[in-house]
């Protein structure tokens, strides 16, 4: 059963990594500019999302149902093949970018795509046909879900818990450079806009550690001393100016605000933040509407010079609308960091990482590599191993 659970979590983590990759701006950009079949990739994405929806149910049912177990095992193979295919596309994208950079470095600094020339032309045809086969293979699994009686667990994303400013630093891995870079932005005396607020946008795919990094900064000793006032608000997908304004007020004053009068709340926030050097965190922003953003921040533009806002987001456009400092794009953790995180959660320390048991270490490292640099995957798998 333990193996089945780990396998299941593994599969979910891999599918999530694939979905994030398919939605990433670099990937979408590459597909658009090449002759790769975009509708086919969209179909692949939809099919993976659909399969992800029934995976929880399949994981539960496989324990008593051999056919479901076989379905899940076969699906695992197909998902790993899909992973190889997408890695191949990412590799080609990188190679294409590098070759073009080297060829046209001086003559034309604008990145041009050389995909119509050989060998990319043939390669794209090959990838398109592999993608078609992959899509049909995965759709086949989706078609069988009714026969197996698997059910979708819908609206998984919208039930994500709201974040808070409290984190657990004892299991923190890496992110030292990122922390230092952002810390310099927070503590610098330079103001980047005509008003007094400097905005740092932390950008990255789901589960990469944006909130965790923001918590680390928010609770740092130097930050505590530098700012007169701090507040944390989780914005989330259903953007609501009233809720965010209220959250900021509640975070500052440590009391509940009952009013539903937005104007009153905004005036109060304006009064409280005026002439104060503040740090506000707006965690998990999805709304990229410029007017909504301006509206949200307008009550606190009279803060003291040096006031800062940290925005965390998965969306490039949100970061572009909000940022005044250079956008901080988080990269995946290294395999070594994933391995450290996985072992910390599996054993409560990373002693396991340095153990003499080479077989265990070899397996652990393989699992860590499959996490694709996503801390959430390393943590989840470590947690599952711990309980077994
Ligand atoms: N550097 C890290 N070291 C240890 N654990 C981490 C690290 N980064 C993230 N985590 C863990 O991974 C999980 C996901 O991280 P987090 O919530 O910060 O991701 P996120 O990028 O904010 O995701 P989302 O876009 O879904 O909000 C958390 O449980 C966190 O504890
Ligand atoms: Mg987050």
Characterize the structure shown.
InterPro entries: Apaf_helical, NB-ARC, P-loop_NTPase, Rx_N. Residues 10-103 form the Disease resistance N-terminal domain. One of its GO terms (biological process) is defense response. Keywords: ATP-binding, Nucleotide-binding, Plant defense, Repeat. One of its GO terms (molecular function) is ADP binding. With 388 residues, the protein is α/β, with parallel strands linked by helices. The protein folds into three domains: 2-159; 169-329, P-loop containing nucleotide triphosphate hydrolases (Rossmann fold); 335-386, no CATH class. Helix content is 58%, strand content 8%. It is built from 15 helices and five strands. It has helices at residues 2-23, 25-33, 38-61, 66-103, 120-147, 176-187, 210-218, 221-226, 241-253, 262-273, 290-297, 316-322, 335-347, 358-370, 375-386, and strands spanning 197-203, 229-236, 278-285, 307-313, 328-329. Strands 2-3-4-1-5 form a five-stranded parallel beta sheet, sandwiched between helices. α1 runs antiparallel to α3 (38-61) and α9 crosses α10 (262-273). Bound molecules: adenosine-5'-triphosphate (ATP) and magnesium ion.
Short description, anyone?
This protein is an alpha/beta fold and 388 residues long. The chain contains 15 helices and five strands. The protein has three domains: 2-159; 169-329, P-loop containing nucleotide triphosphate hydrolases (Rossmann fold), CATH 3.40.50.300; 335-386, no CATH class.
